[in-house]
Design goal:
- This protein is α+β, with helices and mostly antiparallel strands.
- It has 26 helices and 12 strands.
- Strand 2 and strand 3 form a beta hairpin.
- Helix 8 packs antiparallel against helix 9, helix 12 runs antiparallel to helix 15 and helix 20 crosses helix 25.
- The longest helix is centred in the last third of the chain and has 25 residues.
Length: 596
């Protein structure tokens, strides 16, 4: 009798990324079992059902064939070091093992050689030209090096014990029995862990294996580090929590597939990011992850959070683009996403664990969640390129800031509040502070600071709140934002170039927003600025040659007063400042008139 199964459940038991790692590890196992049955590209979809992850396979898995599986499968390697090499099984196959010191030295040699050829490398990457020196570089570091570094030495013994036990299962030819047990475990919710644990105890006793419950490493179970974790404590002993070893093994396997971990720039502290899927095909998720991971480098803590979100979104959009000639994979992708989609519906965000380095140990210091913003919404194919341009612009702005400077750390924190939120309030706080920063940096020598473009700024604001389009399209709003721009960032740029016809109005944006809490005071402050702006224009026209700035007209002031009455002074002030400190396309930014 043929016994098949195509529906599985992974219970959410911790509320942390341990649940996601377990689901990912089991999905990888499913893909391997399908491959052993001759199905190389199974259509699998993982969906968040709240209480559990539901995993649906279009093609049923033949459990009779699963029980007979004999092919060796090593989804996670044993880590060999100079200290433990004599204690590991002698007959380990090479693909089931990595040499830590060899990988470390190879990585060091690669970056030393790359730094020595830095100028040559950058030229080749910029021009896309081949260079003989580049081909002479040592082999690139192992793609999983950061995981090896995380595990060794803090979690090496516990990790290797899992991998050695799996090697023992393979060596005994009993993997089919274990596969079957895992499929049955996850065939229903709640998962009956105790039954498979008892079955394993019987098997382990027959084979003289000692491992049943393994230490729940805080790297895979961030809320379960050493400490007092009992629901009803009956003592003060600080022991490690235990978990059934096969569950821990699957979490380790899943970590290699979906987790991103890095030590922070300049310190030994670590952050781990794990995507939390809403509805995702693992095949597509892996494509996105590989693209995303290739974009990431060591960063400081707050900037790392921001770039993880921005670059994951960019990778998601890149991989979700519809091909001109639609093949089978593109068709499956279209069916999964539909004609209109929001990336946040498919990947909700990142569970984040921050690990503090204590010298001889590490400890989990903070758990957080980075929401994937839902304002990225794809309604037509052109929207993909639109959002990629917006996200890239935001990245170039964020990368200007250094966390060791107080004002820039504050800007990074404000921007992070925005990128993980679904409203614009944090963004307005950021753009107001950013305007002041732009002016302070504009006085310094060197490359001028990056600015938002009004084109991308409008697309972002309207995609988040469509009703803002009427404000942004108002002639009065456009012309008064132009006046703010001409009196701040443009005037400063011209001053730097030797053109001192117009004064730079330092602190204008900050002052307008401060006064905006009270409509009368804001109108008075804005009127005072516009009066001085027009007076300055008239004075320059009398004494200097053109071209000249446009002056603000009476109709512009009437427009802005109507907008304040309808939308409030606070919103209008923040929008004016955001637009006023952004850059127009060059031909418009330099738009000058010969008369008022």
């Amino acid at each position: 009798m043929k016994f098949e199964m195509n529906l599985f459940y992974i219970d959410k038991t911790t509320g942390t990324f341990a649940d996601e790692l377990l689901a990912s590890g089991f999905v990888q196992l499913l893909q391997q079992l399908f491959a052993q049955q001759g199905i190389l590209s199974p259509n699998i979809v993982q969906t968040d059902n709240g209480y559990a992850y539901e995993i649906v396979c279009d093609t049923p898995l033949d459990l009779n064939a699963v029980a007979e599986a004999k092919r060796p499968y090593y989804p996670a390697v044993i880590i060999q070091t100079n200290k433990n090499k004599d204690k590991l099984p002698a007959e380990l196959p090479s693909h089931a093992l990595i040499h830590y010191e060899t990988e470390r030295d190879q990585r060091k040699q690669f970056f030393e050689a790359r730094n020595a050829l830095k100028k040559t490398t950058e030229k080749a990457e910029t021009t896309s030209e081949e260079n003989g020196n580049l081909t002479a570089l040592p082999p690139a570091p192992h793609p999983d090096w950061d995981i090896f570094r995380m595990i060794n030495p803090a979690a090496l013994i516990g990790y290797n014990s899992l991998m050695e036990q799996w090697f023992a299962v393979i060596s005994a030819g009993l993997q089919g029995q274990v596969y079957t047990g895992l499929c049955q475990l996850f065939s229903q919710s709640p998962n009956d862990v105790e039954t498979i644990r008892q079955e394993w105890q019987t098997l382990a006793k027959e084979q003289n294996w000692k491992l049943v419950d393994a230490t729940a490493s805080q790297f895979y179970n961030p809320s379960q580090g050493k400490g007092i974790n009992k629901a009803q404590p009956d003592g003060v002993g600080l022991g490690n929590l235990k978990s059934f070893w096969l569950l821990e093994w699957l979490k380790a396997v899943g970590f290699y597939e979906i987790a991103f971990t890095r030590t922070m720039q300049g310190v030994s502290d670590r952050k781990t990011y794990v995507p939390i899927y809403g509805r995702m095909a693992p095949k597509f998720a892996k494509e996105v992850y590989q693209d995303f991971k290739s974009r990431m480098f060591s960063e400081t803590a707050v900037r790392s959070d921001i770039l993880v979100v921005l670059r994951y979104l960019q990778a998601f959009l890149e991989k979700s683009k519809l091909a001109q000639a639609e093949g089978e994979e593109e068709r499956e992708r279209r069916e999964m996403f539909g004609e209109e989609y929001t990336p946040a519906d498919f990947m909700h965000g990142f569970q984040v664990a921050f690990y503090k380095d204590l010298g001889n140990a590490v400890t989990t210091m903070n758990l957080s969640f980075l929401n994937l913003p839902s304002w990225v919404q794809i309604h037509q194919e052109d929207d993909v390129q639109t959002y990629r341009e917006i996200l890239q612009e935001h990245e170039t702005i964020v990368r200007q800031f250094a966390e060791n400077k107080g004002d820039e750390l504050s800007l990074l924190t404000q921007y992070r509040d925005f990128i993980v939120a679904d409203n614009l309030d944090p963004f307005y706080e950021f753009t107001t502070a950013y305007g002041s920063w732009l002016i302070s940096q504009g006085e310094k020598p060197g490359f001028p600071p990056r600015k938002f473009s009004t084109h991308n700024l409008r697309r972002l604001l309207v995609s988040t709140q469509p009703q803002l389009s009427k404000i942004l399209e108002s002639p009065g709003f456009i012309n008064i934002a132009y006046a703010i721009r001409q009196s701040t960032v443009v005037a400063q740029y011209r001053k730097k170039e030797g053109d001192r016809r117009y004064d730079v109005r330092y602190g204008l944006g900050r002052d307008l927003v401060r006064q905006s809490q009270y409509p009368d005071e804001f109108i008075a402050a804005l009127s005072d600025f516009l009066h001085k702006y027009n007076a300055e224009n008239a004075q320059v026209m009398e004494t200097r040659s053109g071209p000249y700035r446009r002056s603000v007209q009476t109709g512009d002031i009437q427009d802005i007063l109507q907008l304040i009455d309808k939308h409030g002074s606070d919103l209008i002030a923040k929008l004016l400042v955001a637009y006023g400190y952004a850059r127009e396309p060059r031909k418009e930014e330099n738009d000058q008139e010969t008369n008022s």
